[in-house]
Amino acid sequence: MTRFRLSERVPTHNLYRRLAELVDWRFLYEETKALYSHTGQPSLDPVVFFKLVLVGRLENLISDRRLVEHCALRLDILFFLGYEVDEELPWHSTVSRTRQLFPAAVFERLFDHVFAQCVAQGLVAGDTQAVDSAPVKANASLEAVLEKGQVSARGPLLVTGELVATAPAAHLVTAPAHQLRNLATAQARRQGTQSGALGAQHDKARLLSNKTHYSPTDPDARISIKPGKARALNYLCSLAVDTAHGVISHVQADFADSRDSLHLPRLLTGLQQRLRAQQLRMHELLADAGYANGLNYALLEAQQVTAWIPVFGQYKATIEGFTYDAEQDVYHCRAGKALPFRKCDMTADGTGLKIYWATCSDCQQCPLKSTCIPGAKRKQLTRTLYDAPYRRAWQRQQSRQGQRMRRVRQGTVEPVFGNLIQHYGLRRMNVRGQAGAHKTMLLTAVAYNLKKLLKHRVNRQVSLAMALPQPILALIRRSQGPTGRP
Q: Where are the domains of the chain?
């Protein structure tokens, strides 16, 4: 009779054996208790489910079908899941349905549990966080996008010249009129410049936009483009990474058609809550110029957080020919005339502005009028409503510490994104909807942090083994001869 035990076949140094001992997975039963009925056929065990999908992240597998096939061939993974060699693993469809059943709060709880262990092991300092974002391909094709409908004056929905009864609100054109006009102008200019190119008049050569098109397969996916990359349906993965040891402290799935700066307030709220729960406080935030926003600067200053975020390229700290008096909030021109603050205004996109202008009499009698404002009655300056926080951020950017912080950010969060995309299955979504994308990103971050925990434990054991007491070192030296040999 052949005697076979998985526990004896999987070595102690194996990744999944150490992972099974690292985390106490039993808390997941309490977190998912309300989602299971006490009657009926037993469903997939929640601990087995989370271990299974984590294996998919660790093995860089996107497909649930391939994941189950892969796990069935690995003895160490079967041991990690608690299965025997002759037991059949769950169907891939069961894994997909269970993922949809569990709310994102359960995945957040698992992330918090692993993050707390990282804090307990001293891997998280909390005082300096680096933030960045990257697009992740959605589980939808750009070839299948449809044009959004418009509500006609009489009420019914108008789609490409035909009337239909009803349609979801997400499938209606909701962009302001000035944005649609700008889009039409850009499309006409694009078709005019490419009129001689092969295929320029084809229907697929049109400029697709989220304002006028949507994906029926995944309505939450957004058309986005990065410099040097093709236009595609994406989600935006926003990360916060602790600079001490590169542990991911926050992750969220955002729509990919908006600026990074618009997602920072929500990211900051979740990050601060997680740090406060671990008795940590953030003092500095590192990000690239995509997060430069007057509201973000003011928000971080209100929370007493130093923002190492380069100002946007269009912002100018000084205006040539004018000096600014911060106490009086007034500008002075070369002729010494004052341009005091007059009123606040707002652009069509909701950007707050401060407007300064001189009196007409001062400008009409000025000898410099022909070189300053030859065709206007008076000189007017327009500044952002958050000019003071912008100015302080610009000054930090020019300092030597600002240059060092830029290098710290590049060496912290950008390598993390490279690892998640290339080695943890985040190159493409295998689910649909923003909620599903958020769950997938949370699982990817959990797998990455677990690897950090395992490596830290190994390094600590090695360092302890090398730290020999002084009496033993003296005894070894005495036992050696003049040549250093016994």
A: 6-102, 123-138+233-312+394-453, 146-214, 323-385
